[in-house]
Design a protein that fits this description.
Elements: H1 2-14, H2 23-39, H3 43-50, H4 54-64, H5 72-95
Helix pairs in contact: 1-2, 1-3, 2-4, 2-5, 3-4
C-alpha cells in the first residue's frame, strides 16, 4: 500500500497544473488511483496528496464511487477501464481545443 501512495505522490509531483498533464500521464494517474482504491487505501489519503489539484480530486472521488473487488481479475479489469475512461476523456478534451 505504501508503494501505491509513493507512486501516486510521484505522479502528482510531475505536474501540479491539470492543464499540463498529458493524456498518458493522466491515464497513469487514473490507474494508480484506482489501484489504490482496489487495495483499500482511504480516499482521504488520496485527496490529501491531490492538494489543490481539482482534476485529481475529481478523479479520486470518481474512483471511490466505483466498487472495490475481491477478485484480482475484477480489480485489474476495473483499473484498466478507469484508466481508459480518463485517457479517452483527455483525448476528447484535447480535440476540442
Amino acid at each position: 500500500m505504501k508503494k501505491l501512495i509513493t507512486t501516486l505522490a510521484l505522479l502528482l509531483s510531475l505536474s501540479t497544473n491539470a492543464a499540463e498533464i498529458d493524456c498518458e500521464q493522466l491515464s497513469s494517474i487514473a490507474s494508480t488511483i484506482m489501484e489504490s482504491r482496489q487495495a483499500g487505501v482511504k480516499l482521504s489519503k488520496i485527496i490529501k496528496l491531490a492538494d489543490s489539484n481539482s482534476l485529481i480530486k475529481e478523479m479520486a472521488v470518481s474512483a471511490y464511487r466505483k466498487p472495490a473487488y475481491n477478485s484480482e481479475e475484477y480489480k485489474q479489469q476495473e483499473i484498466s477501464e478507469f484508466a481508459n475512461y480518463w485517457y479517452i476523456a483527455c483525448l476528447d478534451a484535447n480535440s476540442e481545443e
